[in-house]
Give the backbone structure.
Amino acid sequence: MLGAIAGDIIGSVYEFHPQKTKTFPLFCDASRFTDDTVLTIAVASAILSSADYGASIATFAERHPRAGYGGLFLRWLQSPSKAPYNSWGNGSAMRASPVGFAFDSVDEVLQEARKSTEVTHDHPEGIKGAQAAALAVYLARSGTSKGEIKGEIHERFAYDLSRKLDEIRPTYNFDVSCQGTVPEAIIAFLESESFEDAIRNAVSLGGDSDTLACITGGIAQAFYKMIPHEIETAVRTRLPKEFTQILDKFQLIFSL
C-alpha cells in the first residue's frame, strides 16, 4: 500500500505539468498526498476494522476535504443517500491496492474489489478497473511472473497490454477513465526494472500522473517487495500521523 501512496505523492506535481520523460525529480516542496492517498487509506481502514467501505470512504474524505476530489465524488459526499453514481472514472482503481494486499484468493480479491468500488463507481468499467488493479497487486505479491500477470489480466478483463510505453507516450493525454488509465498503469509496471523505475514509467506517460503512478506503485511494491529507503522516508514525512498509523498497522498484519 505504501507503494501506491508513494506513486500518488510523486505524481502529484506532474498531474497538470505533464512529463514525457523519465528524468524528473521524484520529490519537491510541492509534492503532497491527494485524494488517491486519502481514499486508499480509507479502504485500508475499512479492511482493518471490517467496516463498511462507503462509510469509511466518506469519513476520510470529510476529514480531508481539500485533497482534490472529482466533482461527482464531491456531490456523492454531500448527498444524504450516498447512492453510487454510475462512474467509470479511475478513482475506483486508485484506491484498490489494499484489497490486493489483504485477501488471499483470486475470488476474494475480485469480490472485495467490487464491494469497495460499487459504493461509488457502479459502472461496469469502474468495477472492472478496480478489480484489475487489485488482482494485479494480488498476483504480484503471490510470486506470479510478469508474463503470467499480463496474461491473466488480459484474459479476464480484455485490456490490451501488448503495447509498449514508447508507443503510448507520444499521443497519450490526460484521461480520467478506468479504461484509459488502468491498462497504461499496468504496462508501466510490466516494463519496469525496479520500484522507482515503475513510478518513473507511469509519470512519463504525461497523463493523470498521480493516479497512474498510484496504481503502478501498488503493483510494483507487491512485485519488488522493497521500496527504497529514501522514497519511503520522503513519503512518510508528507503524511499525517493518522495515515502512518493505519499504514503501519496494515503493513504489520498484511506483510509481504
